[in-house]
Structure formats: structure tokens, C-alpha cells
Amino acid sequence: FFESKGHKRLPSDSLVPNDPSLLFTSAGMVQFKPYFLGLATPPHPRVTTVQKCLRTTDIESVGDHSHLTFFEMLGNFSFGDYFKREAILWAWEFLTEWLHISPERLRITIYLDDDEAYEVWHREVGIPDRKIFRFGEKSNYWPANAISEGPNGPCGPCSEIFYDTRPDLPPTPDGVWDDVRWLEIWNLVFMQYERHDGGRLTPLPRKNIDTGMGLERTAAILAGKASVFDTDVFQPILARIADLSGHAYNGGDSAEDVAFRLIADHIRAVTMSIADGVLPSNEGRGYVIRRLLRRAMLRGQNRLGFDRPFLAEVATAVIDTLGGVYPEVRERRDYVLRTVRNEEERFRQTIQVGSQRLAEMLESPEVQANKTLSGEQAFMLYDTYGFPLELTQEVAAESGIEVDVEGFRRAMEEQRQRAREASGIATQLFAIAGDAATELQKSLPPTKFLGYWQHEAEAKVLAIIRQGEPATFASEGEEVEIVLDQTPFYAEAGGQVGDTGWIMGEHFQFEVRDTQKVGDLYLHVGVVSRGRVEVESSAVARIDSARRWHIMRNHTATHLLHAALRQVLGTHVHQAGSLVAPDRLRFDFTHTSAMTDEEIAEVERLVNERILEDKPVAVHWDVPLEEARARGAMALFGEKYADRVRMVEVPGVSLELCGGTHLERTSQIGLFKIVSEGSVAAGVRRVEAVTGWGVYQLLRQQQELLEEAAARLKCAVPDIPAAIERLQAQRQELEKQLTQLRTGAAARSVQFEPTEMAGLQVVTGRADGVDAQTLASLADQAAQRTSVDVVVLAAATDGKALFVVKAKPSAVAKGVHAGNLVRELAKVAGGGGGGRAEFAQAGGRDAGKIALALEQLPHLLQQMLQP
User: Fold this and answer.
1) For 517, phi and psi rounded to 5 degrees?
2) Is the preceding omega at residue 143 within 30 degrees of 0, hence cis?
């Protein structure tokens, strides 16, 4: 529809926004912030999208018939082109003429004094006055309460369209506040003012339109369904849950039906987020995904009886349903399913730990005295272990303990507030508008980058930023950022660090220590090392070429590494992050287990093989994005790409979307060596490696270490392993002799004469200072006497207690259990342990309690022998 109105259709952005102030893409307009702020030029003055979104502000309402965390938002946008009249008329035309929604079932809300919108709705569309409702800035202004509370920046009134789900009922005189009956389906935002301090509003020079319509809600209306979960996008997911659980989904409000809906929603959010590169973790976006997954698992376990991992199987229905529209989730199917499965398995183990933690809380003296579990404790269980309040209440009730529900709700609300501050689009949307570099984008042309072809270029100083503020000059010793009209300096992006070097003019020299990018401007960060630099100065910009060559070696090697990892480990491997620096490269990739030594060696061999083959490195410019994807070009998780992209290819080996700087041939890398491999997050591994000069330095360091080791071992380098083996054998022999000496000395200090206890012949004694192995050896010696039934020995070592118990078969037959006996002894000394019936050992924190523990021995044995 909007393409017919002259709009350009753009693809959905990632759920991970290119914006540090937001956790997730929560509205269609997020990817267009630079256009609304006037910081960049849009590809077209009219744009339309279907944007995948994620919001968790209403997470506690999910499970009803309309609230969702993951949803798709339909939107049309105008950047200084059309305004209210067109937005309203087209919205009405689309709803009533294209979707054939009855006008009788629609109601309109507008801002209190927005007479312009009222005139269009009333006089041109023909909406009766009784169906148009005026509300204040909390409901019909965007951001909400922007006039009175801020933030400063673009804002404006909005008009919302509501659908009547119960036309059989009498009209509601107070408007559309019955949110069960009235369903908001479209919000038209008229961004026409700029807010200043004190709530002062001034008209924007370019007025913008931003609209959002929920796809799922609109689909439910068109299908005549009362719930979004009755639509085509949810039915296959609900059917999969039913097949796996053996329960039927009835579409009602029972606890089981609510569980169906919550699981279906949450697994959509989890699946789509992981496909966009978000991994479960304990902070930021990863924490949100982990929480959603845990809520879904617990609800399935507690309400639908799932006693095994099931969410990965449900996720297959999400992939089948949405994979045709969002190919990234289909391409990363195996990785998504593996991540979900591993996370759920780990959480099931966490639940066991949480149950133990709850048991400890319930047994604490404070809880026992008050017969109440605090709200903070209940929330900690919820937040850390995923325990829902209802489960905590059930377990606590079994022990006669109440839960402070109000305290729990206060803690929950505090966390919600923190979440709003971290991800709330309304409060954070225009937070970057005051930055000096951001403001300069409005007046300066984009910096022209020349660094693909040359390392030095003539340039003009367009701007200087000193301590966050624009300046006209900078003097020797001052640290500033300089903006040039054109530059050979690469600005940090795509994992590649920014260039360093020098900017030199007739009267100054500037040392560039880093290069960063804000919008389309390159910021040369550094210090004036000589003279005084002024705006409009002519200069020569020269990068540190030697450093750039090291970076290019590492960047091209990173592409070869990616290809080798996929060849050795499997095609589920995708890049999840990288660092390309002059001294090393770091590559994060999706894989669930540690690489074996053999796999590391094979990856290393493949990369060096490609280097020695002297393959060309080809760059393909200005390729349509769809063509690049069709050719199989690899892309970074969650990265946003323009309509036309740059591809870097090593023929027959690697093809990636990449804007970085590269070599001309693989042989220029020299050599490649992996120096480490490890885990950085669940399902993500990290390889660090060096190339070229870095490999040479590593080899020199290792050679020096080998030569030093050989000198200390008094042997040649090739003989080091044999020399170490001899030393190890000598050490083992000395340790054996030392143990024998200790045992002999301890045996002389211990009396092996048995004493009768509970009808048994028992040897007891102390051998302070010995280790557990020596103490066990002493027990064996004592037990060799034919008259002995039980041996109990103790030792105080480094302030801690050691206990060893050995019971002969004759004693075991009478009821003695060494493991149980040693555990009770260790408890007295503040410890624990256990073992078999015949032999066991344990430790305690307080060696001062050994004597007290041994005094309990007759009583403990008597208890064991009682029938």
C-alpha cells in the first residue's frame, strides 16, 4: 500500500540496535533516529518497513490474549516530506479500503489542542465528533509527558486508532480506556516540535511522520479472532507445544492455556534474538533473553508437566513460521537450537541449586523466628534462579512460612524501573543529540575516506573539538579531535581498530592516536605536538603505514580463520565479534564446546596452507545486498548493512561483507599462529592469534624460554623432555620416601592399642601435622591387628581438622558405617564428608574441635548398633 504512495520499502533492522542507549529495537523508528535528528540523509524521503521488535516492559502481562514481548511493527515514515493530512488520510484508506475494517468499529484519539488533526479526522475523513477523544500528554504525546518531563529534542502530538472488539455493547462514554474491549492498532506520531529547557516548544524546520501498527493485532482483527494467539503466526507454535506436552490448548484463561501463550511468546523472542546474535548471559540483552527462556521453561515444567528440555523443539516451529520472512533465523537454525537446548539444560541444573538455596533460607534462624521469608529474598530467588513467586510460596507454605508478597512486588518494580531506564525508548531516544560531534554532523559534509588506496592525502581542517565543545583552534600540548574534509585514516569499525599517524600543516603537527567515526564524520583523536592548528588550515594527513600493514595482515588472516573454522568445526560457525589490532587478532565465533588440540592444529594448518598458496584477495564494490547474500557472503551477527555493500573475497576460500582494509595477496600475511582458545559466553568461543611479525616475535620468545630451560636443566634443547622426565621420577621417589618417613614418625606417636566401645574394639588417636594420605595409611596399619574392629584417627593440619574412619567387615555386619560415622565427627569440627561403609574420610574447619568430636565417638557407635 505505501509503496503505491511513493514510499521506499526497507528491510527490518536487527533486534540489536546500533544505539548504546537501547537494549533492543523496540519500535520501527529506532533505525531511523539519525534521520529524525538531522544527522544523516535518508535514502528516500518516504520509507515503509515491517520491523521485528522486542519489549519487556509488560512482561508480567504476557500470557493474556494480547500482550507480547516479540512482535512485528508495520510503519510508514516521512522525513520532512508529507505530514498530518496525508498520514491520517492514508491510515484511514488502508484500514477501511484495503483491509476492509468497518469504520463503525474504529475510534480516534488526539492530543488535547491538536485542532489540525481534529479537522482532518472530522471534516475530511468524516469521523463524528463523538468518536474522537482528546487526551493529555501522557496518552497522546510522544515521547509521553515530553512537554512537562522531557527529554529535550524532537517531539510531537500523536493520534491513535482503536478497534472495538465488542460492538454489541453500549458505547463507552469515557473513550477507549477499557483495554479489554478497545484494541489500539495504530499510532500516528506527528513530530513537529523541538522541546527546550523548561518545556518550551519551537517548531521544527522539517516535520516528520512516524507511525506504528502491530502486525499480530491487525491480523487478529482481520481474521475475526479475539486473541493474537489464534492467528497463523502462533497456531503452529501452539500445536507443537500441544504435541510435546500431551495437553490441548483450549484458548481460555486456565493456568494451562496461559502457559501455552507465555511459552509461545517467549520462545519467539528468544529464537529471534539468538538469530540476531544475542546470547543468554547475566547482563544486558543476554540477561533479558535468559530470563525469558527461564520463565518459559518453568511455566512448561510447572503447568504442562515437562520434565525434560523441550524449548528447542518448540523453537523449530518458530523457525518454520518466521524463517521465510527472516532468512537469518533459518540460516542459523542449528546454532539457535543448540543454544536454546544448552541454556535450558544448564537452567534445570540451576533450579536444583535454587531449591537448595530456598531450603537454606527457610531453615535460617531469622525466617524461623518470624515465620516470614522477606520480599527481597523471594525476589533474589526469582531474579537469580528463575523461581516464580508462586513456586516459592508453595515450598514455603509446606514449612509453615509466609512470603512477603508486597516486598517482592516492590523489588520487582525497582527492577522494572531500572529496565525502563536502560531500554525505554521514550526517555532515551534523543539522548545523543547534545554531543558536539553529533551536532557538527548537521553542518559539515561527510568525511571522504581515501584509505583503501592511499596512506597519505592533502586535506583541510573542517572542525576541532576540545573537551567535548567545538573550538576554532588548538595549541601545542592540547588533546583534541580534528575533523578533515578527506582522510586516509581508517576509523574503528567492524572490529578493526582505528589508524594512528600524523596530520601536518605549515604551522603545526598533530599526532593522531586513534580514529573514530560519529555518523559520517571521522574524528582524528590525538594531541597537538607542535605549533597551533586552526579551523580551515591546510594539512597533509599521513597514517602510520607500518602499523596499518600489521593490521591488514591480521584482518585478511581473520577471514581465512573464519573459513577454516567452518571447514573444521562445521557450518554452524558464525562470527560473533572480532578485534583486528596491529599486534594480534581476536575472533569470537558460535560453537558450543572447546576445540580439541587436533582441531586447533588443523585450523592453523589450513590457514597457513592458504597463505602459502599466495591466493589473491579480491574486493567487490557496490554490490546489491540481496546479490551478496545470494552469492553466500558471510555477514556479522546483528550487523546492519546498506542496500549496496562491499565484499572481500579470497577465491575458493572466503567471501565476506566487510568494510575493512586488506592485503592484495594472502602470502603477504607471512605466517599464522593460534595462541589461545577459550570461552567468552554460553555458545561462543574465542580464538586469539598472531601473524607475520607477531609470529616471529612469538617464536623468538619461545626459543629464548627453551634455551633458558635447557641451561637450567644442564642439557641441550632437544633433550629437555628427557631431562624433565628424570626430574619427575626423582621427585616421585623423594615424595615416596618422605611419605614413609612421615608415616613412621606418626605411627610412633599413635598408640594402636584398642579400647572397647559399644562392644567393639576401637583404635583412636591423633597424628597432627600429617596429610590425609598419611592418616589413611596409619589407619590401614592399625586395622591389620586381628583384634581391632574400628579405627578412628584425626589430625590437625594448618588449623583444620582431618578425620579417617576404617571399619572391618565384622563391624560393618553389626551396623557400623564408616561414611556416616566420619560425617558426624566432621560436623562437630564445622565440616562434612562421607564415603563407603568400610572406609571414609572428612574434614572440618576448626581443628580445635577434634577432641570434642572424638568424645562423641562412643555415643555415635552406640546409636549405630541399636536395632
Assistant:
1) -130, 130
2) yes
Q: Is residue 401 part of a domain?
A: yes
Q: For residues 573 and 565, is the Cβ–Cβ distance under 8 A?
A: yes
How many CB atoms within 10 Å of residue 816? 24
Domain-ending residue, one of 305, 326, 350: 350
857-865 and 818-828 helices cross at what angle (nearest 10)?
A: 150
* 721 in a structural domain: no
Q: What's the distance, CA 741 to chain centroid?
A: 56
The full DSSP string for 454-490 is: -SEEEEEEEEEEETTEEESEEETT-EEEEEESEESPP
The kind and range of the H/E element at 611 are helix 597-612
What is the spatial distance between Cα 188 and Cα 108, in angstroms, rounded to a whole number?
11
Residues 472, 555 within the same domain: no
Q: Which domain holds residue 381?
A: 364-422
DSSP codes joined into one string, 407-423: HHHHHHHHHHHHHHHHH
User: What is the separation, in whole angstroms, between the first and last Cα of the chain?
Assistant: 87
207 shares a domain with 128: yes
CATH number at residue 762: 3.10.310.40
Q: Which three cell numbers stand for residue 282?
A: 547475566
**Helix 389-398 / helix 375-385 crossing angle, nearest 10 deg:** 120
Number of domains in the chain: 6
Burial class from Cβ neighbours inside 10 Å (0-12, 13-18, 19+) for residue 292 reads buried
- Exposure on the CB side of residue 155, measured as CA atoms within 13 A: 31
* Planar angle of CA 372, 374, 377, nearest 5 degrees: 130
User: What one-character-per-residue DSSP string does 38-70 give?
Assistant: TSS--SSSEEEEEEEEE--TTGGGTTSSS--SE
Confirm if 797 and 777 have CB atoms less than 8 A apart: no
Least Cα distance to 492 among 581, 600, 588 occurs for 581
Is residue 404 assigned to a domain? Answer: yes
Determine the Cα angle at 151 with ends 147 and 155, to 5°: 60
Q: Could you tell me if 469 and 497 lie in one domain?
A: yes
Helix (H) or strand (E) holding 558: helix 545-569
| Contact of 774 with 746, CB cutoff 8 Å | yes
Residue-by-residue DSSP string for 301-325: HHHH---S--HHHHHHHHHHHHTTT
- How far CA 91 is from CA of 76, 106, 108, 450, in Å, comes to 10, 12, 12, 45
Q: Which helix (H) or strand (E) holds 368?
A: helix 365-370
Select from 107, 105, 170, 101 the least CA-distant residue to 135.
107
Report pLDDT for 434. Answer: 42
Give 612-679 as a 3 state SS string.
HCCCECEEEEEEEHHHHHHCCCECCCCCCCCCEEEEEEECCCEEEECCCCCCCEHHHHCCEEEEEEEE
Looking at residue 433, what is its pLDDT?
39
Distance (Å, whole) CA 801 – CA 843: 5
pLDDT at residue 424 in the model: 43
C-alpha distances out from residue 167 to 103, 172, 177, Å? 12, 10, 15
3-state secondary structure of 524: strand
Strand ranges inside 181-322, DSSP E: 182-195, 201-214
Residue ranges of the chain whose pLDDT lies below 70: 178-179, 416, 418-435, 637-639, 743, 746-751, 786
Determine the Cα–Cα distance for residues 716 and 709; give it in Å rounded to an integer: 9
What's the pTM?
0.70
Among residues 5, 24, 6, 7, the alpha carbon closest in space to that of 15 is found at: 24
Domain boundary among 509, 543, 577: 543
DSSP H or E run through 65: none
Report d(CA 107, CA 404) in Å as an integer.
43
Q: Tell me, what's the pLDDT at 284?
A: 83
Query: What CATH number is associated with residue 20?
Result: 3.30.930.10
Calpha distance 186→159 (Å, rounded): 8
Quick count: other Cβ atoms within 10 Å of Cβ 786? 7
pLDDT at residue number 638: 60
